[in-house]
Automatic annotation (TrEMBL):
HAMAP family: MsrQ
UniProt GO molecular function: electron transfer activity; FMN binding; heme binding; metal ion binding; oxidoreductase activity, acting on diphenols and related substances as donors
InterPro entries for this protein: Fe3_Rdtase_TM_dom, MsrQ-like
Subunit structure: Heterodimer of a catalytic subunit (MsrP) and a heme-binding subunit (MsrQ).
Protein name: Protein-methionine-sulfoxide reductase heme-binding subunit MsrQ
Cofactor: record remark: Binds 1 heme b (iron(II)-protoporphyrin IX) group per subunit. Binds 1 FMN per subunit.
Cofactor(s) in the UniProt record: heme b; FMN
Membrane-crossing residue ranges in chain numbering: 21-42, 54-74, 86-109, 124-149, 161-178, 184-203, 215-239, 259-279
GO biological process: protein repair
Main location: membrane
Keyword terms: Cell membrane, Electron transport, Flavoprotein, FMN, Heme, Iron, Membrane, Metal-binding, Transmembrane, Transmembrane helix, Transport
Topological category with respect to the lipid bilayer: Multi-pass membrane protein
GO cellular-component term (any): plasma membrane
Amino acid sequence: MWAVARIGRRMPWYDQGGRFSGLKLATLLCLLAPAVWVLLQIPLELLEPRPVTLAIHATGLWAIRFLLLTLFVTPCRRIFLWPRVFILRRMLGLSVLAYALGHFCLFIVDKAFDLGVVANELVLRYYLTIGLLALFFLIALGVTSTDLALRRMGIRRWRRLHGLVYPALFLALVHFFMQSKLDVTQPTLLTGLALWLMLYRLVDRRFGRQRALGPVWLLSLTVATTALTALGEALYYHLAIGAPAILVLRANLSLGPAGWRPALIVTLSGLAVVIVATLRRLARHAARPMDGGLPQ
């Protein structure tokens, strides 16, 4: 019974102290939801006419989304003054690996398990080679994500190895852009969010050592990232199909029939961070006891 209880305490919805965590359980269910939805769509014939191909795209998309979410843990902890969110980082990272492996396995299924064809395409189609390299990086991160690996490697070597998350993200985005061809709405959006995360790390390392970056800094990052996202999308379409860059920039500032453009979504995401961070700071300030006290 003791051994069974000990194994049970290692389930993903328990924290390192062996206590049940509602936060971890809710996160686990959210991470499983996209995979469950993809599996449910197959018998419902919602992924026709090429269900495997659409499932490949869905798992790849969610792998990058969850990778960005994993990288948001550190900013979330500092900006929102929420240290407890750190317990989710390993679970989020492993979910990225799980979806990336599912993405690759579905690619093999799509090729009728013909490993010769798979190997040939991985060599001849550059975007597949790039995606495979990103997968190798994610596997290295996943294998060394345990406490035992951290103790054996030492904190410095472990951190150096886990710096591979940044080239893995870069390669995954390049893979996504090349696979998407002309419609790069989703890759542009994810790249814009990735830019925000990278710029945040650079600025926080330079100016936020003692205290988390304030709302003014966060708003400035949002403005800069929005501009880079809009310019990047305009430049891509101009080079790819010769579209006038000014028309693409105008589309980013309007709610046309095609829906919200990536730059606008990046703006709203950044503003949401600014608002939540401001509210958290105000709540924390209001909760502090006032200095002084009653007069003697």
